[in-house]
Predict the structure of Putative ATPase, AAA-type, core, AAA-type ATPase domain-containing protein.
Amino acid sequence: MIPTTMNQMWTTMGSTLASFMFVWAIIRQYCPYELRRFFEKYSHRIMGYFYPYIKISIHEFTGDRLKRSEAYAAVEAYLSSNTSKSAKRLKAEMVKDSSNLVLSMDEYERVTDEFHGATVWWVLTKALSPGRSMSMSYYPEQEKRFYKLTFHKKYREIITGSYLDHVVKEGKEIRVRNRQRKLYTNSPGYKWPSYKQTMWSHIVFEHPATFETMALEPEKKKEIIEDLVTFSKSKDFYARIGKAWKRGYLLYGPPGTGKSTMIAAMANLLSYDVYDLELTAVKDNTELRKLLIETTSKSIIVIEDIDCSLDLTGQRKKKAEKGCVDDEIIKASKERMKEPKEEGGSGSSKVTLSGLLNFIDGLWSACGGERLVVFTTNYVEKLDPALIRRGRMDKHIELSYCSFEGFKVLAKNYLRLESHEMFDMIQKLMGETKMTPADVAENLMPKSPQDDPERCLSNFIQALEEVKEEEEAKKKAEEVKEIAATTKELPQENKDVEVTECSGEQ
Ligand SMILES: Nc1ncnc2c1ncn2[C@@H]1O[C@H](COP(=O)(O)OP(=O)(O)OP(=O)(O)O)[C@@H](O)[C@H]1O
Ligand SMILES: [Mg+2]
């Protein structure tokens, strides 16, 4: 009895559908456009009464088509991790910079997911993009891809209330876990517009430096780490106080004191990407702004040796004296550009101090959020105060010569020694000399297989003694020079006195 009823039901449904399709084909063929639209609209409504399922689409690109949707990327990550076991047709891709094949569901593949008793179906679909206009012709993608989520209307609240949040949250976590961090640099001589969608080139960021391996006083290290971690967790705080979620760090100190190493340690601590901005390769302020817009959140924007990048020092004073600041800087930059450049340099940077100031904390700098801006310099006193004032460069960190505490970190890293009888001697010598962490590290490095920790330590003591002797000799030479200068000046002073006296007598 039941099979007969089922058969009858299927037959009725089939014939109804066939009639509907027939009518629809006729309407499509012969009806004017307005009537077709009208029919489409109402047929969807009618279908809505009988069709118990709800569909949600998550498109790959957002409205302006320049930026990939974060929701799409999160869903993609969620599905490739959670459903690749159940999908029957999988796509294997060698993701750029990765050595492994990454599996994800193939187009039109349908996978099922369960959440708190609700069953949902995901399909990856594509449709032709309506934006195949001339203006978009240089974008290679012409197809709109989107995920379609289907579920019964009785689960509406669960799905829209918590399932979608769960998918996006888990997808984002998966992306952060699997993410290979990148080191970006701006390519000189870049032409815009071009087939490339970004002005940055990148490689995988693989620097091994960490705060643990950095030679730094423990309190200073702790303070910097706490500052960074607090920043990374302060999204709500920055929103509450009405400030863009970014922070500036100025790292200054002599060469070889660990400024670049600290940037790598910062990136590793927070799992941020690094944008190493070569300012001399940036054509002008507009290009600088474009570069800024293209940086992503969770990143560190670095300008190394800011004092050498462009002639940005003390230009504000000249403004008051000579008029237009920009003209002065452009002139200075041009002079610099006449000098032989490294290969690849654009040789025509017109970036100005005001452009750079806007880059750091102008209106555009707020887009994206969660970014650190780091400047390094060997000569902090050369920089324009406007560039490094608090608010732009919020934290100034001086990296200086190696302390005994710093040496202990390096001895642990390089020689696996936490203490040794020679340490007292080293502590005394380090108190009397100035050696950069880079030099200490080099001296502790074993140079041959026979170099055991003791030999490395005695080599280091020898190096310290040599530095001490050099410093003492230099000091003595300076003292001699000073004495010579004063004794040279003396007769001159006496002569003046004599002349005065003579003239007084006359
Ligand atoms: N504080 C430090 N802790 C551990 N290693 C250090 C430290 N400072 C320097 N080094 C070692 O010295 C090398 C040079 O350091 P780094 O490039 O960070 O110096 P820098 O301050 O950026 O120099 P410059 O001003 O010339 O750019 C690094 O490869 C690192 O191994
Ligand atoms: Mg450096």
Residues 453-505 form the longest helix (53 residues). The chain has three domains: 56-130+149-178, 183-398, 420-489. Residues 131-141, 313-346, 495-506 have pLDDT under 50 and may be disordered. Residues 420-489 form one domain.
